Amino acid sequence: MCTRAIIARRLLCCGLAAVLTSAAAAQTPVEGPPASPGQVTARWTASDTTCRNPAASAVDAVGACEQRDTLAKVLALAGLCHAPTADRSAEVWTRCAGRSQQEATRATSQFQRMGGVFVLPARLAGSTQVYFIVDSGAATVQIPEETVVEMKRNGTLTDADFMGERRFILADGRGMQQRVFRLRTLQIGDRTMENVLATMGAPRSRALLGQSFLRRLNWWKIDNVRNAIEFEFTGAF
């Protein structure tokens, strides 16, 4: 699906560790006995609280969401499923009741053909429509400059969401400075992911759905028969 121009813009993971130091530390294995499901659940809950806290800084919110979704994978591997309580006042992890409960975290979204490539419709911060090329070689979600300007103008992106600039290395070896910010929400189909790390691309560039979104999923795959993306997300989605 990617043209040569898109491939040339692929980001090869370069300065994001400085932005997400807390998340990286949280995902680093710790020496000692394995944590119990109860301990992992407690860490998940703490991360989820910060992830959802509207008063948390952009860096803290993104880092907490990344940590929460890593812990969710650990709990899923242990055979636990995530669901709200009956009154929806809280969320709990319990032993999966069966395949139907596991499949409840899965979703499918159709591609559309635009300009000779297949793109995935998405909505940013609840209002701005974009069409992503799914690019697993991109380190982050990349948003064209004019879309970022539009979001700032309508108030869905503020100065508090920006986390400075980072230098990236392109596929052809050239370096490039890009502004880094958090998308408060990124919706694909009927599923919404919170606090997604993004970078601002050049004017009239393609929107890229990169690893800062894809790595937070349990798994994803392209269905070339139905021309769709399928994915599973265990956390609060």
Q: Overview of this structure, please?
A:
The protein is built from 8 helices and 13 strands. The chain is an alpha+beta fold and 237 residues long. Strands 4, 5, 6, 7, 8, 9, 10 and 11 form an 8-stranded mixed sheet that branches. The protein has a 3-stranded antiparallel sheet with strand order 3-13-12, with no helix packed on it. Strand 9 and strand 10 form a beta hairpin. Helix 3 runs parallel beside helix 5. It is globular.
Keywords:
alpha+beta; three-stranded antiparallel β-sheet; 2 domains; Cathepsin D, subunit A, domain 1; single chain
Based on helices, strands and strand pairing, what is the structural class?
alpha+beta
**Count of helix runs:** 8
Ends: how far apart? 27 Å
What oligomeric state is this? single chain
The CATH architecture category of the largest domain equals: Beta Barrel
Show unreliable segments.
Answer: 1-30
Mean pLDDT: 83
Q: Give the H and E element order.
A: HHHHHEEHEEEEEHEEEEHEE
Main beta-sheet annotation: 8 strands, mixed
CATH class of the largest domain: Mainly Beta
**Can you tell me the overall shape?**
globular
CATH homologous superfamily caption of the largest domain: Acid Proteases
Task: Report the count of strand segments.
Answer: 13
CATH topology of the largest domain: Cathepsin D, subunit A, domain 1
| The number of domains | 2
Our estimate of the beta-strand percent is 25-35%
Q: From the alpha-carbon coordinates, what is the Rg to the nearest angstrom?
A: 18 Å
Residue share in helix: 25-40%
